[in-house]
Amino acid sequence: MKNVLACACLVVAVVGCGAIKAQPGACGTAAQCTDPAAPFCVDSECQATCAVNSDCTDATQPLCSAGACIQCETNTDCADPNASICDTGTHECRGCTIDSECAGGVCVEAQGTCVADADVAFVANNGTSNTCTRTAPCGSIASAIANAPTRPVIHVLGGDLLDSALTLSGTHIIDGENTIFGASGGTSVTVTGPATITLEGFQFTEPPAMMMLPAITMTGQANVTLYNVTVSGAGGPAIVTQAGATLNLSHSHVGVAGVGRHEVDCINGILNADQNVFLTSFISNGTGACTAKITRNRFDSNSDGSVQISGGQVIMENNLIIHEDGFNDSILVENLAAGSTVRYNTVVNTTGAPSDGAAIDCDNSAEITSNVFAYNSMHSVVGQGCNIKFSVFDTVSITSAGTGNQVVDIDSIFVDRANGDYHLAANSIAKMAAEPGQTMTKVDFDGNPRPNPVGTTSDSGAFEAP
Question: Does the predicted TM-score (pTM) go above 0.85?
Fold first, then answer.
């Protein structure tokens, strides 16, 4: 009888004197905390916040800080040399973005890696040494290549380098500090293959327009990365990749608003252009075919075409193209190879009065889908066989036929067209208007995820609405 009474008294923890009954929120391990609002097992209770590092069971976020599991608190928590910086905002390991983040003071931004001084050949405009150290720099890039051939990185100290024209081959990473490269009167840099070259943090000036020479050119089996580079001048060829060479152009500026016309020519070569700004500039294939991937670029202040390619495979995604002339065409794509596509682009014309220029001139060789053509033009589409679908046009256009296309007042598409904000308005018809099933691009112009929310249809144009 005593045993029965004892059993009855233990109602909190025992059911029928049998198995132990878990109490609400009680746990032995984090696996038993199935409520996303309380995922941590702390002192045998499921809690919303962690208390110690051992509460963080995800190997990618092993540290507990202020009740949350994070990847890092300081740079010492980041062991990957390609992600050696602890971001103070997100507490995630990432690559370096500026020299000052690196203990040695040299960051190769194109790769996100810090480089120790022992692996760097230093150059300065007034350098006189052949040792190419930080305290005794060489006087030119050519001198650094000759005197420190085993050091993988060349770093230019200071804002100016009055160097002569440079011819490169082999493998080199050349890093500037927004350095003005002072060669004038002709091409500044010529790369001949075989070569793997990275140039970053430099300002180049085009030769005089009458010379028709580029500031930078590459040919043969050359793979060239230009990162955070500026090319400006009075107009003419800015960069040329040709005869099988590959140009990777990223986070760079080409051209000067309202000054001349600046060209990036891809002549029987390969071009990867990502997250650049083109001012009064255009991409062309010249007289040869071009394999081009053109993504997340801003073409601005143009009074003529922004992309003009005939021949080769072209992928154009998530670009913002702003045209300032009502009588010229913006995009020309024709005679392209299989797999070519123009999608998720926003093409606008800032002229006040309705015009007759074309947002796109195309044939049937490319897939044209999920764009916004706010061109304020009656003939925003021209070309034989050009088939556009799941795109948004303004009401001025009379060439908007196609599967899934929609027509709407131009100002209702954007947040503030008059002031240049081309993100989608809250009630924009472009929302969830893209072609269903398009999966190639995962982010929009700003780097935000597509589609948003996951599992829905993406928005047409370069911007995905929050």
Answer: yes
